[in-house]
Amino acid sequence: TQSTWEMNEVSPENVSYEDQSAYDVADMVKQFFRDLPEPLLMSKLGETFLHIYQYVPKEQQLRAVQAAIMLMSDENREVLQTLLCFLNDVTSVEENQMTSMNIAVCLAPSLFHLNIIKKESSPRVMQKKYATGKPDQKDLSENLAATQGLAHMITECDRLFEIPHEIFCQSRNSYIEAEVHSPTLEDLGKQMDEESGNYQTYIESLIHNLCKDAKDKFKGWVTCSSMENTDLCYKKVGDRNPLRLWKASIEVEAPPSVVLNRVLRERHLWDEDFLQWKIIETLDKQTEIYQYVLNSMAPHPTRDFLVLRSWRTDLPKGMCVLVAISVEHEETPLMGDVRAIVLDSQYLIEPCGSGKSRLTHICRIDLRGHSLDWYNKGFGHLCLAEVANIQNSFQPLTAEGPETKI
Q1: Same domain, yes or no, for 216 and 318?
Q2: For 15-20, what is the mean pLDDT?
Q3: Which residues does UniProt assign to the signal peptide (predicted)?
Q4: Burial 246-275 (b: 16+ CB within 10 A, else e)
Q5: Is 365 a domain residue?
Protein backbone atom coordinates (compact mmCIF):
# COMPACT_ATOMS: atom_id res chain seq x y z
CA THR A 1 0.00 0.00 0.00
CA GLN A 2 2.84 2.33 0.88
CA SER A 3 4.21 2.39 -2.68
CA THR A 4 0.74 3.16 -4.08
CA TRP A 5 0.29 5.89 -1.49
CA GLU A 6 3.75 7.34 -2.21
CA MET A 7 3.10 7.43 -5.96
CA ASN A 8 -0.05 9.47 -5.34
CA GLU A 9 1.80 11.83 -3.01
CA VAL A 10 4.69 12.42 -5.42
CA SER A 11 2.87 12.56 -8.77
CA PRO A 12 -0.92 12.24 -8.49
CA GLU A 13 -1.49 13.15 -12.15
CA ASN A 14 0.67 10.30 -13.48
CA VAL A 15 -0.38 7.31 -11.39
CA SER A 16 -1.44 4.17 -13.26
CA TYR A 17 -3.45 1.58 -11.36
CA GLU A 18 -3.23 -1.03 -14.13
CA ASP A 19 -0.59 -3.15 -12.38
CA GLN A 20 -1.67 -2.35 -8.82
CA SER A 21 -3.34 -4.83 -6.51
CA ALA A 22 -7.03 -4.03 -6.08
CA TYR A 23 -6.61 -4.69 -2.35
CA ASP A 24 -3.78 -2.16 -2.09
CA VAL A 25 -5.79 0.52 -3.91
CA ALA A 26 -8.87 -0.18 -1.76
CA ASP A 27 -6.74 0.07 1.38
CA MET A 28 -5.30 3.38 0.18
CA VAL A 29 -8.81 4.78 -0.40
CA LYS A 30 -9.83 3.69 3.11
CA GLN A 31 -6.73 5.28 4.60
CA PHE A 32 -7.34 8.54 2.72
CA PHE A 33 -10.84 8.97 4.13
CA ARG A 34 -9.78 7.78 7.58
CA ASP A 35 -6.94 10.36 7.73
CA LEU A 36 -9.09 13.37 6.77
CA PRO A 37 -9.22 15.98 9.58
CA GLU A 38 -13.02 15.86 9.33
CA PRO A 39 -15.09 12.88 8.12
CA LEU A 40 -16.49 13.06 4.60
CA LEU A 41 -20.01 13.06 6.06
CA MET A 42 -18.96 16.03 8.22
CA SER A 43 -18.66 16.19 12.01
CA LYS A 44 -21.90 18.17 12.36
CA LEU A 45 -23.94 15.83 10.15
CA GLY A 46 -22.34 12.43 10.82
CA GLU A 47 -24.61 11.83 13.80
CA THR A 48 -27.64 12.90 11.75
CA PHE A 49 -26.91 10.25 9.10
CA LEU A 50 -26.44 7.61 11.79
CA HIS A 51 -29.70 8.58 13.52
CA ILE A 52 -31.60 8.33 10.22
CA TYR A 53 -30.54 4.70 9.86
CA GLN A 54 -31.06 3.99 13.57
CA TYR A 55 -34.46 5.57 14.20
CA VAL A 56 -36.24 6.62 10.97
CA PRO A 57 -38.63 4.02 9.44
CA LYS A 58 -37.14 2.33 6.35
CA GLU A 59 -39.74 3.73 3.94
CA GLN A 60 -38.81 7.30 4.99
CA GLN A 61 -35.02 6.90 5.05
CA LEU A 62 -34.42 7.93 1.42
CA ARG A 63 -36.29 11.22 1.91
CA ALA A 64 -34.47 11.89 5.18
CA VAL A 65 -31.03 11.25 3.64
CA GLN A 66 -31.87 13.48 0.65
CA ALA A 67 -32.66 16.29 3.11
CA ALA A 68 -29.45 15.68 5.11
CA ILE A 69 -27.36 15.72 1.92
CA MET A 70 -28.76 19.17 1.09
CA LEU A 71 -27.20 20.42 4.35
CA MET A 72 -23.70 19.27 3.35
CA SER A 73 -21.11 21.69 1.98
CA ASP A 74 -20.81 21.60 -1.82
CA GLU A 75 -17.35 20.03 -1.83
CA ASN A 76 -18.28 17.24 0.61
CA ARG A 77 -21.50 16.53 -1.25
CA GLU A 78 -19.75 16.31 -4.63
CA VAL A 79 -17.08 13.97 -3.28
CA LEU A 80 -19.76 11.80 -1.65
CA GLN A 81 -21.72 11.60 -4.92
CA THR A 82 -18.58 10.73 -6.90
CA LEU A 83 -17.59 8.05 -4.40
CA LEU A 84 -21.05 6.44 -4.09
CA CYS A 85 -21.52 6.25 -7.87
CA PHE A 86 -18.05 4.73 -8.23
CA LEU A 87 -18.79 2.13 -5.54
CA ASN A 88 -22.11 1.37 -7.22
CA ASP A 89 -20.19 0.70 -10.46
CA VAL A 90 -17.88 -1.66 -8.54
CA THR A 91 -20.87 -3.68 -7.25
CA SER A 92 -22.38 -3.89 -10.74
CA VAL A 93 -19.38 -5.83 -12.13
CA GLU A 94 -19.97 -9.50 -11.35
CA GLU A 95 -16.27 -10.34 -11.49
CA ASN A 96 -15.65 -8.17 -8.39
CA GLN A 97 -17.96 -10.34 -6.27
CA MET A 98 -18.73 -7.34 -4.06
CA THR A 99 -22.18 -6.32 -2.85
CA SER A 100 -23.01 -2.89 -1.48
CA MET A 101 -23.07 -4.45 2.00
CA ASN A 102 -19.58 -5.98 1.55
CA ILE A 103 -18.19 -2.59 0.55
CA ALA A 104 -20.04 -0.83 3.38
CA VAL A 105 -18.53 -3.18 5.98
CA CYS A 106 -15.05 -2.23 4.72
CA LEU A 107 -15.55 1.51 4.22
CA ALA A 108 -18.17 2.71 6.74
CA PRO A 109 -15.76 3.10 9.70
CA SER A 110 -13.45 5.27 7.55
CA LEU A 111 -16.23 7.46 6.12
CA PHE A 112 -17.97 8.01 9.46
CA HIS A 113 -14.73 8.05 11.49
CA LEU A 114 -16.14 5.39 13.79
CA ASN A 115 -13.97 3.83 16.51
CA ILE A 116 -11.53 6.76 16.29
CA ILE A 117 -10.82 8.12 19.76
CA LYS A 118 -11.76 11.81 19.84
CA LYS A 119 -9.02 14.06 21.21
CA GLU A 120 -11.50 15.99 23.31
CA SER A 121 -12.64 12.84 25.14
CA SER A 122 -11.54 12.80 28.75
CA PRO A 123 -9.07 10.04 29.76
CA ARG A 124 -11.61 8.71 32.26
CA VAL A 125 -14.29 8.24 29.58
CA MET A 126 -11.85 6.61 27.16
CA GLN A 127 -10.53 4.31 29.84
CA LYS A 128 -14.03 3.25 30.81
CA LYS A 129 -15.07 2.83 27.16
CA TYR A 130 -12.27 0.44 26.28
CA ALA A 131 -11.57 -1.15 29.67
CA THR A 132 -13.60 -4.26 28.83
CA GLY A 133 -11.73 -4.79 25.57
CA LYS A 134 -14.94 -4.76 23.54
CA PRO A 135 -17.19 -1.98 22.18
CA ASP A 136 -20.28 -0.99 24.14
CA GLN A 137 -23.86 -1.23 22.88
CA LYS A 138 -23.81 2.34 21.51
CA ASP A 139 -20.72 1.56 19.40
CA LEU A 140 -22.31 -1.60 18.05
CA SER A 141 -25.51 0.25 17.19
CA GLU A 142 -23.58 3.04 15.42
CA ASN A 143 -21.45 0.55 13.47
CA LEU A 144 -24.54 -1.31 12.30
CA ALA A 145 -26.32 1.93 11.32
CA ALA A 146 -23.23 3.17 9.44
CA THR A 147 -22.83 -0.11 7.55
CA GLN A 148 -26.51 -0.45 6.63
CA GLY A 149 -26.67 3.25 5.82
CA LEU A 150 -23.66 3.23 3.49
CA ALA A 151 -24.97 0.10 1.74
CA HIS A 152 -28.31 1.87 1.21
CA MET A 153 -26.59 5.03 -0.10
CA ILE A 154 -24.49 3.00 -2.57
CA THR A 155 -27.60 1.22 -3.86
CA GLU A 156 -29.64 4.45 -4.12
CA CYS A 157 -26.83 6.72 -5.34
CA ASP A 158 -28.78 7.85 -8.42
CA ARG A 159 -31.74 9.08 -6.34
CA LEU A 160 -29.95 10.44 -3.27
CA PHE A 161 -28.90 13.71 -4.87
CA GLU A 162 -32.30 14.63 -6.29
CA ILE A 163 -34.20 17.44 -4.58
CA PRO A 164 -37.55 16.15 -3.23
CA HIS A 165 -40.47 17.63 -5.19
CA GLU A 166 -42.13 19.32 -2.20
CA ILE A 167 -38.87 21.06 -1.19
CA PHE A 168 -38.38 22.25 -4.76
CA CYS A 169 -41.94 23.65 -4.82
CA GLN A 170 -41.44 25.42 -1.47
CA SER A 171 -38.26 27.15 -2.63
CA ARG A 172 -39.31 27.69 -6.25
CA ASN A 173 -40.38 31.32 -5.84
CA SER A 174 -37.09 32.42 -4.29
CA TYR A 175 -35.16 30.62 -7.06
CA ILE A 176 -37.22 32.29 -9.78
CA GLU A 177 -36.67 35.67 -8.12
CA ALA A 178 -32.89 35.16 -8.10
CA GLU A 179 -32.77 33.53 -11.56
CA VAL A 180 -30.04 34.85 -13.83
CA HIS A 181 -30.99 35.11 -17.50
CA SER A 182 -28.54 35.74 -20.32
CA PRO A 183 -29.34 38.87 -22.34
CA THR A 184 -29.87 38.89 -26.09
CA LEU A 185 -27.67 41.13 -28.27
CA GLU A 186 -30.54 43.64 -28.32
CA ASP A 187 -30.74 43.60 -24.52
CA LEU A 188 -27.05 44.50 -24.30
CA GLY A 189 -27.69 47.59 -26.42
CA LYS A 190 -30.56 48.63 -24.16
CA GLN A 191 -28.20 48.62 -21.16
CA MET A 192 -26.35 51.58 -22.71
CA ASP A 193 -27.44 55.09 -21.72
CA GLU A 194 -27.53 56.53 -25.22
CA GLU A 195 -30.45 55.78 -27.54
CA SER A 196 -28.19 54.48 -30.30
CA GLY A 197 -26.71 51.84 -27.99
CA ASN A 198 -26.12 48.34 -29.40
CA TYR A 199 -23.99 45.31 -28.56
CA GLN A 200 -20.97 46.94 -30.26
CA THR A 201 -21.13 50.03 -28.04
CA TYR A 202 -21.64 47.73 -25.03
CA ILE A 203 -18.44 45.83 -25.89
CA GLU A 204 -16.53 49.09 -26.42
CA SER A 205 -17.64 50.31 -22.99
CA LEU A 206 -16.39 47.05 -21.39
CA ILE A 207 -12.99 47.42 -23.06
CA HIS A 208 -12.77 51.14 -22.22
CA ASN A 209 -13.56 50.50 -18.54
CA LEU A 210 -11.07 47.62 -18.35
CA CYS A 211 -8.26 49.77 -19.77
CA LYS A 212 -9.21 52.61 -17.40
CA ASP A 213 -9.14 50.26 -14.38
CA ALA A 214 -5.73 48.97 -15.46
CA LYS A 215 -4.43 52.54 -15.81
CA ASP A 216 -5.72 53.28 -12.28
CA LYS A 217 -3.98 50.09 -11.05
CA PHE A 218 -7.28 48.36 -10.18
CA LYS A 219 -8.23 50.39 -7.11
CA GLY A 220 -10.83 49.13 -4.65
CA TRP A 221 -10.07 45.39 -4.80
CA VAL A 222 -9.63 43.17 -1.72
CA THR A 223 -6.37 41.16 -1.87
CA CYS A 224 -6.39 37.44 -1.00
CA SER A 225 -3.48 35.18 -0.13
CA SER A 226 -2.20 33.38 -3.22
CA MET A 227 0.72 31.49 -4.69
CA GLU A 228 4.12 33.11 -5.21
CA ASN A 229 4.33 35.51 -8.20
CA THR A 230 0.53 35.61 -8.55
CA ASP A 231 -2.15 38.06 -7.45
CA LEU A 232 -5.70 37.17 -6.41
CA CYS A 233 -8.29 39.83 -5.54
CA TYR A 234 -12.05 40.24 -5.43
CA LYS A 235 -14.66 42.92 -5.11
CA LYS A 236 -18.40 43.00 -4.63
CA VAL A 237 -20.61 44.15 -7.48
CA GLY A 238 -23.55 46.40 -6.75
CA ASP A 239 -26.24 44.41 -8.57
CA ARG A 240 -28.80 41.90 -7.29
CA ASN A 241 -26.48 38.95 -7.86
CA PRO A 242 -24.37 38.15 -4.75
CA LEU A 243 -21.46 36.56 -6.66
CA ARG A 244 -18.11 38.30 -6.27
CA LEU A 245 -16.00 39.56 -9.16
CA TRP A 246 -12.56 37.88 -9.06
CA LYS A 247 -9.24 39.02 -10.51
CA ALA A 248 -6.25 36.70 -10.99
CA SER A 249 -2.89 37.84 -12.41
CA ILE A 250 0.33 36.10 -13.41
CA GLU A 251 3.41 36.66 -15.60
CA VAL A 252 3.64 34.62 -18.81
CA GLU A 253 6.73 33.84 -20.93
CA ALA A 254 5.22 35.06 -24.23
CA PRO A 255 4.27 38.36 -25.89
CA PRO A 256 0.65 39.63 -25.60
CA SER A 257 -0.52 38.64 -29.11
CA VAL A 258 0.67 35.06 -28.59
CA VAL A 259 -0.97 34.84 -25.16
CA LEU A 260 -4.21 36.22 -26.60
CA ASN A 261 -4.21 33.54 -29.30
CA ARG A 262 -3.54 30.86 -26.66
CA VAL A 263 -6.60 32.01 -24.68
CA LEU A 264 -8.77 32.60 -27.75
CA ARG A 265 -8.02 29.64 -30.03
CA GLU A 266 -5.86 27.13 -28.10
CA ARG A 267 -7.80 26.35 -24.94
CA HIS A 268 -7.13 22.63 -25.44
CA LEU A 269 -3.46 23.31 -24.63
CA TRP A 270 -4.17 24.64 -21.12
CA ASP A 271 -7.59 23.35 -20.05
CA GLU A 272 -7.84 19.56 -19.70
CA ASP A 273 -11.61 19.88 -19.15
CA PHE A 274 -12.16 21.49 -22.57
CA LEU A 275 -14.40 19.05 -24.49
CA GLN A 276 -15.76 20.78 -27.60
CA TRP A 277 -16.39 24.18 -29.15
CA LYS A 278 -18.25 25.82 -32.00
CA ILE A 279 -18.37 29.31 -33.52
CA ILE A 280 -22.12 29.93 -33.77
CA GLU A 281 -21.85 33.22 -35.66
CA THR A 282 -19.01 35.52 -36.75
CA LEU A 283 -20.22 39.11 -36.23
CA ASP A 284 -17.03 40.85 -37.43
CA LYS A 285 -13.28 40.20 -37.64
CA GLN A 286 -12.87 40.39 -33.87
CA THR A 287 -16.31 39.50 -32.49
CA GLU A 288 -18.22 36.20 -32.45
CA ILE A 289 -20.88 34.14 -30.73
CA TYR A 290 -18.94 31.18 -29.32
CA GLN A 291 -20.14 27.98 -27.65
CA TYR A 292 -17.97 25.57 -25.66
CA VAL A 293 -18.29 22.73 -23.15
CA LEU A 294 -16.18 22.02 -20.06
CA ASN A 295 -16.06 18.55 -18.54
CA SER A 296 -16.57 17.55 -14.90
CA MET A 297 -15.58 14.32 -13.20
CA ALA A 298 -18.36 11.74 -13.53
CA PRO A 299 -21.16 11.71 -12.46
CA HIS A 300 -21.25 15.52 -12.33
CA PRO A 301 -22.72 17.40 -15.32
CA THR A 302 -20.70 19.05 -18.07
CA ARG A 303 -21.04 22.85 -18.31
CA ASP A 304 -22.16 24.48 -21.55
CA PHE A 305 -21.22 28.13 -22.25
CA LEU A 306 -22.68 30.38 -24.95
CA VAL A 307 -20.92 33.74 -25.05
CA LEU A 308 -20.51 36.89 -27.07
CA ARG A 309 -16.77 37.53 -27.14
CA SER A 310 -14.65 40.25 -28.69
CA TRP A 311 -10.91 40.99 -28.69
CA ARG A 312 -8.53 43.84 -29.51
CA THR A 313 -4.84 43.78 -30.45
CA ASP A 314 -4.37 47.47 -31.37
CA LEU A 315 -4.53 49.06 -27.93
CA PRO A 316 -1.97 51.57 -26.52
CA LYS A 317 1.33 50.23 -25.13
CA GLY A 318 0.92 46.92 -26.99
CA MET A 319 -1.88 45.64 -24.76
CA CYS A 320 -4.36 42.97 -25.89
CA VAL A 321 -7.85 42.42 -24.51
CA LEU A 322 -10.54 39.73 -24.70
CA VAL A 323 -13.99 40.27 -23.18
CA ALA A 324 -16.87 37.78 -23.01
CA ILE A 325 -20.41 37.63 -21.63
CA SER A 326 -23.16 35.01 -21.87
CA VAL A 327 -25.95 35.72 -24.36
CA GLU A 328 -29.13 34.14 -25.62
CA HIS A 329 -28.92 33.38 -29.32
CA GLU A 330 -31.72 31.98 -31.47
CA GLU A 331 -32.48 28.89 -29.41
CA THR A 332 -28.91 27.54 -29.71
CA PRO A 333 -29.21 23.97 -28.35
CA LEU A 334 -27.12 22.72 -25.44
CA MET A 335 -23.97 20.78 -26.30
CA GLY A 336 -23.34 20.07 -22.60
CA ASP A 337 -25.59 19.14 -19.68
CA VAL A 338 -26.06 22.47 -17.87
CA ARG A 339 -25.94 26.00 -19.30
CA ALA A 340 -23.56 28.07 -17.15
CA ILE A 341 -23.72 31.87 -17.14
CA VAL A 342 -20.68 34.08 -17.75
CA LEU A 343 -21.64 37.32 -16.03
CA ASP A 344 -18.23 38.80 -16.76
CA SER A 345 -14.97 37.52 -18.26
CA GLN A 346 -12.17 39.90 -19.24
CA TYR A 347 -8.58 39.09 -20.14
CA LEU A 348 -6.06 41.93 -20.07
CA ILE A 349 -2.60 41.09 -21.48
CA GLU A 350 0.12 43.72 -20.96
CA PRO A 351 3.72 43.55 -22.23
CA CYS A 352 6.30 43.62 -19.43
CA GLY A 353 9.63 43.42 -21.31
CA SER A 354 11.86 40.61 -22.60
CA GLY A 355 9.00 39.11 -24.60
CA LYS A 356 6.92 38.50 -21.46
CA SER A 357 3.36 39.51 -20.59
CA ARG A 358 1.29 40.22 -17.51
CA LEU A 359 -1.95 38.23 -17.84
CA THR A 360 -4.95 39.39 -15.78
CA HIS A 361 -8.26 37.54 -15.84
CA ILE A 362 -11.32 39.23 -14.32
CA CYS A 363 -14.07 36.68 -13.89
CA ARG A 364 -17.61 36.24 -12.54
CA ILE A 365 -19.36 33.02 -13.57
CA ASP A 366 -22.46 31.23 -12.31
CA LEU A 367 -21.62 27.55 -12.90
CA ARG A 368 -25.07 26.48 -11.60
CA GLY A 369 -25.41 24.04 -8.74
CA HIS A 370 -23.13 25.69 -6.16
CA SER A 371 -23.76 27.66 -2.99
CA LEU A 372 -22.58 31.22 -2.39
CA ASP A 373 -20.23 29.88 0.29
CA TRP A 374 -18.54 27.64 -2.30
CA TYR A 375 -17.98 30.62 -4.64
CA ASN A 376 -16.64 32.82 -1.84
CA LYS A 377 -14.20 30.18 -0.58
CA GLY A 378 -13.09 28.42 -3.74
CA PHE A 379 -13.93 30.10 -7.03
CA GLY A 380 -11.10 32.64 -6.88
CA HIS A 381 -8.56 29.83 -6.54
CA LEU A 382 -10.03 28.16 -9.64
CA CYS A 383 -9.47 31.44 -11.51
CA LEU A 384 -5.89 31.50 -10.25
CA ALA A 385 -5.37 27.88 -11.31
CA GLU A 386 -6.62 28.80 -14.79
CA VAL A 387 -4.08 31.59 -15.35
CA ALA A 388 -1.37 29.31 -13.91
CA ASN A 389 -2.33 26.66 -16.48
CA ILE A 390 -2.05 29.25 -19.25
CA GLN A 391 1.39 30.22 -17.91
CA ASN A 392 2.49 26.57 -17.72
CA SER A 393 1.40 25.93 -21.32
CA PHE A 394 4.31 28.16 -22.40
CA GLN A 395 6.92 26.43 -20.23
CA PRO A 396 9.80 24.77 -22.14
CA LEU A 397 10.05 20.98 -22.05
CA THR A 398 11.68 19.61 -18.91
CA ALA A 399 14.92 17.64 -18.87
CA GLU A 400 12.88 14.43 -18.89
CA GLY A 401 11.20 15.45 -22.16
CA PRO A 402 12.32 14.42 -25.67
CA GLU A 403 15.85 15.42 -26.64
CA THR A 404 16.61 17.28 -29.83
CA LYS A 405 19.85 16.77 -31.78
CA ILE A 406 21.44 20.02 -32.84
Answers
A1: yes
A2: 84
A3: none
A4: bbbbbebebbbebbbebbbeebeebbeeeb
A5: yes
